Amino acid sequence: xxxxxxxxxxxxxxxxxxxxxxxIGVVGTGLMGSAIAHRLIERGFRTFLxxxxxxxxxxxxxxxxxxxxxxxxxxxxxxxxxxxxxxxxAVKEILFGKNGLVDSKNRKLIVVxxxxxxxEDSIYCANLMKKKGYSIIxxxxxxxxxxxxxxxxxSIVSGNKKxxxxxxxxxxxxxxxxxxxxxxxxxxxxxxxxxxxxxxxxAISLAESIVFVKKSRIDPAIFLEILNxxxxxxxxxxxxxxxxxxxxxxxxxxxxxxxxxxxxxxxCARQNGITLSFxxxxxxxxxxxxxKGYSELDYTGILKLFGEFNNLKLSR
Length: 316
Ligand SMILES: NC(=O)c1ccc[n+]([C@@H]2O[C@H](COP(=O)([O-])OP(=O)(O)OC[C@H]3O[C@@H](n4cnc5c(N)ncnc54)[C@H](OP(=O)(O)O)[C@@H]3O)[C@@H](O)[C@H]2O)c1
Fold this sequence. Notes:
about 55% helix; binds NADP nicotinamide-adenine-dinucleotide phosphate; alpha/beta
């Protein structure tokens, strides 16, 4: 682009330039936030970042993103802000903490929260944001960093109808499909927690099968090949399974975050008088694995725990 055009663009607000010049902010540059920001940069959005630990955003800055000091700075510069942080405490800090997004005073801003959090936290945030004159929607994601970078994840959305409509262009930049659950705040979070229970239990069952086959002195790669030839195969057995049999637990979704999600699900179930026996057991196993020091592994590292229960040392 010639210098003159760059100067003209700098003097215009993105809103006056149309969609292609939208400024998008990403809060949280962990595994998922980084993947979202990466995708946005690739798709040509002007991308701003905020991360509590500044160094974690440097790789994206090298790719062209602009790092801000505080969430409030990000809010002032952007039309949309996508949040991808660990939990509800972090989301509240980003929105309402010192120099938080609401301090931006940009009431045209639409906040898209992709974090996996308790439904009640999302409801609290949506109500308080509304009271302060801002808009936030829930948009948790099914799929990890690699599919996010390919625009291949599923987004589940709930909240303010107009804001969902307006956010679709952003959501479709990294999602292949969007499920809109309507205006009930928190609805998307209930579904997301239920989906993650499914993933946790499949990972546990795959891990126990691999241990059983290994202890029987049969190559687990054969077990996996057969499983993946049947209709009992899953995305997990096809994509993560081959890594599990090679004891490759490079994190795409930290085990500590899977523990967090199962804990949220169980807390939510208890509050609503629901008994989930396998979910309670899954929480125990992920907690033991975390206490043993496997927090920073991929959640499929649960295999190491079941290996240890059977005196099976698993290392690469
Ligand atoms: N990874 C996946 O496959 C996946 C898929 C779907 C959904 N999710 C969900 O997406 C969210 C992010 O996951 P992730 O995998 O990116 O996790 P991650 O790599 O552990 O990153 C967590 C992010 O949250 C920030 N954070 C945590 N506590 C904070 C606080 N109190 N204040 C400000 N920032 C805080 C961290 O900042 P620092 O760098 O400063 O610690 C970091 O940017 C989680 O809710 C997770 O459950 C993950």
